[in-house]
Amino acid sequence: MHSLRLKLILGFLLALAAVIAGFDVFIYTAKRYALFEVMDGRLYAETLAISRHLEIEGSRLFFDPSEENGAHPPLPRVFRIVGENGTILAEAPSAGAVPWPALRPDGKNPQWRTARAGHGRHWRVATWKGRSEANEEIAGKSRPADETSFGFVVQCAEPLAAAAEELRKLVSLLAAVSLLAFLIAGGGSFFLAGRALRPIRRVNTALEAVSETNLDQRLDPSSFDVELHPLITQLNATLDRLENGFQRERQFTADASHELRTPLAALLNSIEVLLRRPRTDAELIEAHRDNERTARSMQAVVEGLLLLARMDAGKAEPAKESVAPDALVEEIFDAISSEANAKNIGLVHAIDSALRVQADPAQLRLALHNLIENAVRYNRPGGQVSVEARRTGEAAAIVVRDTGVGIPEDQLHRIFERFYRVDPSRTEATGGCGLGLSIVRKIVDGHGGRVDISSGSEGTVFTVVLPDA
Description:
The chain has three domains: 4-167, Beta-Lactamase; 226-312, Orthogonal Bundle (Helix Hairpins), CATH 1.10.287; 321-467, 2-Layer Sandwich (Heat Shock Protein 90). 47% of the residues lie in helices and 19% in strands. The chain is built from seven helices and 14 strands. It has helices spanning 4-51, 161-208, 229-276, 281-312, 325-342, 361-377, 436-446, and strands at 54-57, 60-63, 79-83, 88-91, 111-116, 122-132, 150-159, 321-323, 346-350, 357-359, 384-392, 395-402, 450-456, 459-467. The strands form four sheets. Strands 4-3-7-6-5 form a five-stranded antiparallel sheet. Strands 9-11-12-14-13 form a five-stranded mixed sheet, with helices on one face. Strands 1-2 form a two-stranded antiparallel sheet. Helix 3 (229-276) packs antiparallel against helix 4 (281-312), helix 4 (281-312) runs parallel beside helix 7 (436-446) and helix 6 (361-377) packs antiparallel against helix 7 (436-446). Mean pLDDT is 81; it is low at 134-141, 143-147 and 426-430.
């Protein structure tokens, strides 16, 4: 099981460990640099002090440890002086324990190097190269002009044991302090992570009280930290969608039950009447015709519901191809011409035969059929239904216009709802099952388009806009 609290603690501890390690490395490096800086300065000063005791006599260079007043100042414990021919001019008694490094000819002067001896001992060695010449001052002493010049190398060494011990103590101190800080921070992070996650537990507790029977409950963002406000807002929006979805489902169930209950009751009643006594052939034929109309009405409702369910589930994706709208409209006009002629309604269209749209032919035919059928059904006797199509930029607009009674403005926003009718009586005379426009919107939405509507006393206009694929 993944724990957010554990992830927060581990993440914090890893970051803290990296910071502590970086700090320790910085302190150690700075201390080591400071120790070596002091040691190197001391060794360099010692090489200069030794060079002041070099004397030239005749044709040789020799080391005289005494001062001009005859005093013998203290000398470094470990040093040596090497002549230009490699001979040792002078050295301390303990000089043999040091692995003296050679002077790099291309290096700076003086040079400092760390030399490793046996048994893990390390030495810090300063090497300074000088030359005594006539008329040259060697460490502040003037020489006669007739003396010969000599080259020499002075090396002083100091063991690193004391510095290493000091660094070991520093490492022990840093390790102890770092471990203590890490343990204290670990306990603090456990506590702080719990406090940081407390608002999430409050959100969870509040959501546990929400069920399908009380979806109207909402979380108050003001009672949470400002960082959680976007999350609370999204949760409330999700609850709004859930509540609307449940309301639509309940309304859908009630409407579907109503639509199917009425024709089903009529069908059962007709069958019961037929079974009460023997009927003539003419009576049976008429009764069967009524039952057929009732069954077809129920079939239209069921098929409409199945189609909408498939579209809601994403199982009715349009198979787009190049479609000629004028041919589809001609087919629809032929299919509903008898109903239009019965009401003396004219059917006209003005569509360029060369116009093509990218759409699913079957779905587009169904959408236009529902629109044109509604335009005929809710039109005035002697009215007209016209269909136009035009190219608008990279989209095509198909306009279905009627001369009917129109739709009240306060009901325009609801006409695409399932089972909604402007006429609340839901009588068979109004026709349809209240699913036609819902199917139209679903089909157009599936094509990435939109359906616009405008209505007034002169009739209603539906505009279907289909973008190119």
